[in-house]
Amino acid sequence: SLTTSVDIARERCLPWSLYERKHDVAQRNTFRLLAALPAALDSASQLRLHFQPRVDLHDHRCVGVEALLRWQHPMIGPVVPSDFIPMAEKTALINRITAWVIDNGIAQAARWQQQGLDFNLALNVSAADLDRPGFAGLLRRGLDRHKLDPRRLEIEFTESAMIRHPDHLAEQLATIAALGVHIAIDDFGTGYSNFSYLKQLPASSLKIDQSFIRSLPDSRTDRTLVPAMIQLGHSLGQRVVAEGIESAEAYAQLRAWGCDEGQGYWIAKPMPAAALETWLETPWHEQHAAPVNLLAASLAAARV
To answer: Which residues form a coiled coil (predicted)?
Structure first.
């Protein structure tokens, strides 16, 4: 349709977009998903959270988990967030989705807190969430309701969120940080950060985007950029997290560069809460220790 083509052109920052029939099909599928979302939010079984561990690269401890939304549609099957979140962000449904993720994520983190498990929970938030005046209050009420220590919660937002209403963003983040909640800048390196503004944000962590990490073994450019990003994060007093670690080589190299934490499929894939608890009982690094230590020794020898 004309509207679809205009929207695509706008999203791609182009003055035009060629009409293709597949655009209509994709649009219809998206609208069907949006129409089904209210029922999914009311259901006790369709939406769920999976959790991907984040580990300290030096002592291999699990220091946090990132909550990732999953939707098991009764007719379609698994639906990935990228198929419905972008469109939901243009509607009031995003507020309900955000509230669901916050409430269920904090509730699970509170259960882990009661079990004596010592790691924090990271929740992804959008620019639209941070634009909402009452967003910090939503977090506070969730923390109070489930009696979760605020220091066990981390809010992740992308660089692109800084482009929209930067003054309001700084005010919102300051309010969130005042609760005791940690702030992390996600997907670092993919946006257009104003470094003078970056240093004013109350962020305690910087997460390097996976696109730089996955290509480390083969990209000389990324092997130059990543240590520079690590140094930048440390100069701002932030812990640096590498996303998308998919090999022992990347793990060992990041550790040698002084990167603090990491996550990725080589460490563990996202999993349900019960599976995560089982994973925590089995020291994952013992299975990976030999190749990492061998590579670390090789890297150390190369520096001599």
So the answer is: none
